[in-house]
Amino acid sequence: MFEEVGPGGPELDPTAIFELMAEEGFTLTERIKEAYFPYRYKALHWRIADPDVSLFGEFNVMNIDVSSEVKLPVQDFAWEKSDERLLSELSILDDISRGGGGQLATMRFLPGVSSPEIWFLDRFHTFVKLDLDYRDYLDNLILTKGVTGWQYLFADVSLGAREYDSTLESLRTMLQVLPEHFADHDYQPLAARLEARR
User: The pTM is what?
Assistant: First the structure.
């Protein structure tokens, strides 16, 4: 339904970007540097063509340099005064809002920490830290194609709770449909994570 790639290109050498980030106190690991992609962002919003199946996804993911500069609008997510400090430390990695879900994946850059934390924010379920780093996030985005709620597979939540009914249904459908279309990907680790959170 929508696809866009931001400015940049494969000829861009990110060495100077990493050096500048290091000067600002963010010395990234080689693992994280290897996951850098040379476009400001990549965005996709899709739905499955089969009218009998409800499955869709989206992402608007930024490279790590751009993400470090795009701060979270704290007032939109701080339900409690005590949340403001943490939220003020987050910057946007993946703006998942085109479909109206109001979700964001964010990174928490802390001085002296070489791999930023990944936090998932949902206007309905507040926010949760993910068991992923930046590279893991991108790898799993490729696997899941941005299916709604995939991030909860890496969160310490119980998807059996009633509030997650639509998320659970989306993930179940994803694990039925995507392996049929992308047989070269291994979806078993995601299936195991879903089972562990039911």
Answer: 0.92
